[in-house]
Amino acid sequence: MSIVRLEHVFKEYTLGEQQVCALNDISLSIEDGSFMAIAGPSGSGKSTLLNLIGCIDTPSLGKIFIDHQDISGRTPDELSDLRARAIGFIFQTFNLFPVLSAAENVEYPLLQFKELSVTERRSRVSKYLAIVGLSRFARHRPNQLSGGQRQRVAIARALATQPKIVLADEPTANLDHKTGEGILQLMKDINGSFRTTFIFSTHDRRVMEMANRLVRIEDGQIVRHEAEEQETSLSAKQRRERDNPPDRAAGQSETDGTQT
Ligand SMILES: Nc1ncnc2c1ncn2[C@@H]1O[C@H](COP(=O)(O)OP(=O)(O)OP(=O)(O)O)[C@@H](O)[C@H]1O
């Protein structure tokens, strides 16, 4: 069942006298529980697409359904409420409050949920800090944590509201190779355990290879979809071998079977 659906979505920005077409007729269905990567060159429209799915911005034309709700015509307050309850965000620069501890950062988005008691809030914070392996660091401020630990706090914060969808804009871009891999594996494990849908924008080949679906955009248009649900059981290497059997692959570069 699709958790996100876009129908003929266009997004234009006005820049002085100029109109910039950032998304040009995007139609896309994202299944519940996906671990999906959006790839494409700089300026292709990845962030714009994430912003529309995240209800941070609205399309110039077309329809967007989030968790089966048509979001066109919603007021900014209604969009903000939907965003707070259905969607978690992870950013490449972590975006933590520097003056708050790890626990307070995770608790922050829960403050707007008036139905949660203080005890419930605190227990959620402990639960998600434990899931990301940071219980011992609850009182640390971001500047007392490594980059990978900061991103773990950001993941706990994104999950604390128990959203159906987590949007991650280049989540490994500011992390070294090994730390980035740990963060990816953590998100993949959470995706497997809780069936939270993850949607990434990325330039990182490892993110693309770990995804069970890859959508590539160029100049605001989808140029290639790769991997549907039946592909999830295949590793990237198996997919490459299947798509490039030894005799056909001979003489091709190692990257030919994948997309960047
Ligand atoms: N607020 C804005 N006003 C005007 N033009 C914009 C605005 N935001 C984005 N654009 C333009 O829309 C297009 C798509 O931008 P977007 O940020 O979505 O690309 P991207 O694929 O995320 O790029 P990157 O990988 O560099 O982050 C670009 O041509 C960009 O210049």
TrEMBL record:
InterPro entries in the cross-refs: AAA+_ATPase, ABC_transporter-like_ATP-bd, ABC_transporter-like_CS, ABC_transpr_LolD-like, MacB-like_ATP-bd, P-loop_NTPase
Name of the featured protein: Putative ABC transport system ATP-binding protein
Span of domain ABC transporter: 4-244
One GO biological process term: response to antibiotic
Single annotated GO MF: ATP binding
Residue ranges, annotated region (Disordered): 225-260
Keywords of this entry: Antibiotic resistance, ATP-binding, Cell membrane, Membrane, Nucleotide-binding, Transmembrane, Transmembrane helix, Transport
Entry's family note: Belongs to the ABC transporter superfamily. Macrolide exporter (TC 3.A.1.122) family.
GO CC field: membrane protein complex; plasma membrane
Organism: Nitrosospira briensis
